[in-house]
Amino acid sequence: MKKIIFTALPFLLASGGIFYWYHDNYGTNDYYTKINQAGTRTYIGEGAGHKVYKYRYKLASFNACGEELDIDFNSRKDHPMKKDAYLIVHVNHKKGVMGWEEIAKSQLPKKAENHLN
Questions:
Q1: What is the model's pLDDT at position 47?
Q2: Taking the model in full, what pTM does it have?
Q3: What's the number of domains the chain is made of?
């Protein structure tokens, strides 16, 4: 029995450490926001022989509990995002915004929706 415990213990500790590291570096919390302002067109660099621009947004966002977080992110392409679109934004506490996607207003949690309207 001791042999099994001493064999399994290092594996369990390593697995726990890997899980913690992965969650800390790649895990996200979901926040909800609304595009209520025009983004700022920002020069990113050169690509394929032409200048590359993206739109930068600085918005207030709210999680499902209604807690606020100011976020800063870029559009994916060189055109502004739809005005009054609702987004779910995936935020990592170390790296900031990891991604976002547009959602319908009906998908907003009630507490977040109250702050966004």
A1: 78
A2: 0.80
A3: 1
